[in-house]
Amino acid sequence: MNLSRARGVLLALAWLPALASAAAPGLLCPHADEAIDAAAAKTMQQGSPGMLVGIYRRGQPDYVRGYGLANLEHRVPMRPQAVFNLASVTKQFTAAAVLLMVQDGKLRLDDRLDRYVPTLPQASRVTIRQLLLQTSGLPDYAEDPAEATSGAVARTPDEMVQWIAGLQPSLAFEPGSAWRYSNSNYVLLGKVVEQVSGEPLQAVFARRLFAPAGMTDTAFDDPTQVVPGRTQGYRRDKQAPGGFANARWLSPTVPGAAGGLRTTLADLARWTQALHGGRILHEELLRTMTSPGHLDDGRTTKLGMPQAWQEGLDADYGMGVFINASPFGHRIWHSGDMPGFSTWLAYYPLTGVTIALAINSESADLPRDEIERLAFACVGVRE
Fold it and tell me: pTM of the entire structure?
């Protein structure tokens, strides 16, 4: 390890005694906190100033801890209450909002998109269900080379629709015939929710999702707001003083309904309890959301994925969530990556366990498998 990297790890670990949140008895093994500390230190050594770990059982915290720094410029420690960008874990909130519109009788899953977004040329060929399942064939605006510069510009939902409408090819495959991850799908779903509700998306989320779940620190991010505990995002830069630089600026209006929320670990725990406890959606629609989706030929979404995704994920896609078996039972999860942040949220219905992880960097990998193993080491759950 070089000297500058060693200093970074020591700095991160120096905050641990002040930030530790004791693990509650009943879930974690003795000394599991030491192993989690080591996993966090390894991640920060890899390229992140800070990290958050939250392990909850039936909504109650078993282990919640912040590591390292939330803000390098002002040496602000990463506290367990830190506010961070959620990135693509936002998609399950958008999926739930769409299903609430279905529940209210305001739209149907098999409605064509042109009924709600007529300005998108290919909208007549795509259904709401296909958008939710990522089987629409619409290209991903986040893969547009122009995103690297134009992503810094604030955009209205209509301007995002216009951007997506101009992407070429207009469809990557025939809708319903394959699976491809596309942020465009969820940006368009956000526009659909606004159209059918007659309200801004933030208002719908606040009233129909955040309030029933008891979430007090979650919102679509807005850089003009002063947010206590807001975490700064970074990227590894060996040429920069201290080895880090600020992440590329991405206006939160660009990811929007596909990845624009900010939140806290505690709010994510409240969300999983509310969603999977039936306080957001009726049972049938919750089951629809959290079950493997299907292509038009009957295959599950996993079999429509590119081969590398099939092998790497070994998971199906539902509506805003991935679903697969883990060594510790059925797992419903999603990850998120954006400039400056990486996140992961997983829920295990068999035990009611929630694991939420976040780092304020785009230059390190979250130790998901290791934290999961440590969380269940003394539970002995197998399916």
Answer: 0.93
